Amino acid sequence: MSTSHLSEQEIIRREKLATLHALGIDPYPAAAFPVTISSTEIKSGYRGEENKADFADVKLAGRLMGIRDMGKACFAVLQDHQGKIQIYVKRDEICPTDDKTLYDNVWKSLDIGDIIGVQGYVFTTKTGETSVHVQSLTLLSKALKPLPVVKEKEGETFDAVTDPEFKYRQRYADLIINPHVKETFLKRSKLINSIKEFLNSRGAIEVDTPVLQSIPGGAAARPFTTHHNALDIPMYLRIANELYLKRLIVGGFDWVYEFSRNFRNEGMDRTHNPEFTVLEFYTAYKDYLWMMDTTEQLLEKAAIDVNGTTDVVVGDRTISFKAPFQRITMFDAIKEHTGFDISAMDEDGIRDVCKQLGIHVEKSMGKGKLIDELFGEKCEHHYIQPTFITDYPIEMSPLTKKHRSKAGLVERFELMVNGKEIANAYSELNDPIDQRARFEDQVKLMERGDDEAMFIDHDFLRALEYGMPPTAGIGFGIDRICMLLTNSPSIQDVLLFPMMKPEN
After folding, report:
1. Euclidean distance between CA atoms 322 and 230, whole angstroms
2. Model pLDDT for residues 466-486, shown as the tens digit of each residue
3. Angstrom distance (rounded) from CA 486 to CA 192
4. How would you class 320 by CB atoms within 10 Å of its CB: exposed for 0-12, middle for 13-18, buried for 19 or more?
5. How far apart, in whole angstroms, are the C-alpha atoms of residue 263 and residue 20?
């Protein structure tokens, strides 16, 4: 195999690999290594003479992250899944007295990044550092590619790798050399578990719905299209799971939820990734007012479970998830931040307001899209503390029940935090005749060139005709909530493998 594409270090590591094979040593052994303890357990539990007998025989495994060679002995840093610990390796102890080749040819063939297993006892060095005195050592995996060098001293990190291209494309390496990155994803796991605990304790049922759909419904978005060969029909990756969850409410479930992986064929930026995670849940016999109260309770609990407090630091701001949250209608928000009262305006009037405010709009945009663009450009960024924007125009909300007391509006809210939407909720439309008319209005928008308008889902309409009880539904942007609770400036920071352009 040609090595012309390899760096000097990569060539040297392959030469060391050949040496190991020549010695009859498998650098990738099949046998499991019997780990008995972690680095954190050693450092938190070891108390010197008081309990050294409990640490007289420990086995741990991990990645070499630093080596200080002193001839016949060396110190090294071993990093396992919980942290780092110093190990001490002495030639005369890990090799037979009449053969030092194991140390010279194996230990000295090891590099930073290699994965090893060690067995030994715990002790404290003269400088007071808890360490493992190695009595036997096993190479578990030879690393052929060198890690970027990250310098550490007295608990501080220098020359940390911060290049986004490297971090997001090679997340596996990012996690190795920047262990703090793992904390973000541990918090993400805590967030999801906290929400599930909240919902399960209240009687909600977790379900699964199709990712491949014949009609991309439940949201206004451009779908990814594929083809089902056996059926010879176009298929779509789901843009939302809403219509399937509401089918289950028709079928008799009172409260269902799903953490849904959704796909929207749209742009990428600091808060958008084409593949993202949404939590949606639907509850029978409830409305959007109940849903606002429930949302406050859920997010307050999640903030405490993830960070121990309802106050979350986001950049140079502190955001409080302590209930209750502020509430303001959409028309009042637009009037407050633009000076225009658009509540009685038609499409042409709103288009003229957008023009006066310097907002670029397309001819294909109907009244709902124009209002959405106006709010997004002039209002959204003002809402830093959690704020419910309520009572949307009917044109913006084809799946939402008409407002019980305000003509032309629907019972809907979006939750804004730090200038971005993190949740969207409705009193769900359950009138099949009204729903069909709303879908038909969407088709007209599609004919005008709106590639995000909704398809007519005839099976969903059939389900509504069997009767759906009054229902409240909501969708939470899990990635955006995670950004807030981990103080992450980009959605790519809270996705283990964000979408990237292909490498050249």
Report:
1. 52
2. 999 999 999 999 999 999 999
3. 13
4. middle
5. 47
**Axis crossing angle, helix 288-307 with helix 478-485, rounded to the nearest 10:** 40
Distance CA 181, CA 380 (A): 30
**What stretch of H or E contains 331?**
helix 330-338
Distances (CA, A) of 64 to 107, 431, 495: 11, 64, 26
Helix (H, G, I), strand (E, B) or coil at 58: strand
pLDDT at res. 102: 65
Domain boundaries, the chain: 8-147, 182-325+385-494, 329-376
**Would you state the structure tokens that stand for residue 229, as one six-digit string?**
């060969």
- Quote the CA–CA distance of 219 and 477 in Å, as a whole number: 13
Q: Quote the tokens at residue 178.
A: 């920047």
- Would you say the C-alpha torsion 445, 478, 258, 248 has a positive or negative sign? negative
CA distance 442 to 452: 9
As a whole number of Å, the end-to-end CA separation of the chain is: 22
Write down the H helix ranges in 252-340. 288-307, 330-338
Residue range 24-82, pLDDT digits in tens: 889 999 989 999 999 999 999 999 999 999 999 999 999 999 999 888 888 999 999 99
DSSP 54: G
* C-alpha span between 478 and 261 (Å, rounded): 10
pLDDT in tens, 196-220: 999 999 999 999 999 999 998 888 8
Angle at which helices 288-307 and 180-201 cross, to 10°:
140
Distance of CA 95 to the CA centre of its chain: 47
Token match 């596996």: residue? 172
Distances (CA, A) of 76 to 29, 73, 88: 22, 10, 6
Q: Are strands 233-237 and 225-228 parallel, antiparallel or unpaired?
A: antiparallel
Q: Cβ(17)–Cβ(25) under 8 Å?
A: no
Do residues 347 and 370 lie in contact, with contact meaning Cβ atoms separated by under 8 Å? yes
Question: How many residues does the structure list for the chain?
Answer: 504
Class of domain 182-325+385-494: alpha beta
d(CA 340, CA 325): 25
Picking from 277, 228, 280, 243, the residue whose alpha carbon sits closest to that of residue 258 is: 280
**Given this model, what pLDDT does residue 368 score?**
86
* Residues 221 and 452: beta-carbon distance below 8 Å: yes
Say if residue 366's pLDDT is above 90.
no
Give CA separation, 202 vs 126, 225, 479, in Å: 56, 37, 24
pTM greater than 0.85: yes
Phi, psi for 379 (deg, rounded to 5) = -120, -45
CA–CA gap between residue 305 and residue 299 (Å, rounded) = 10
The secondary structure of residue 426, as a DSSP letter, is: E
Q: Which two tokens stand for residue 386?
A: 């959690």
Domain 8-147 has CATH 2.40.50.140: yes
Q: What does DSSP assign to residue 296?
A: H
Which tokens in the block code for residue 311? 């106050």
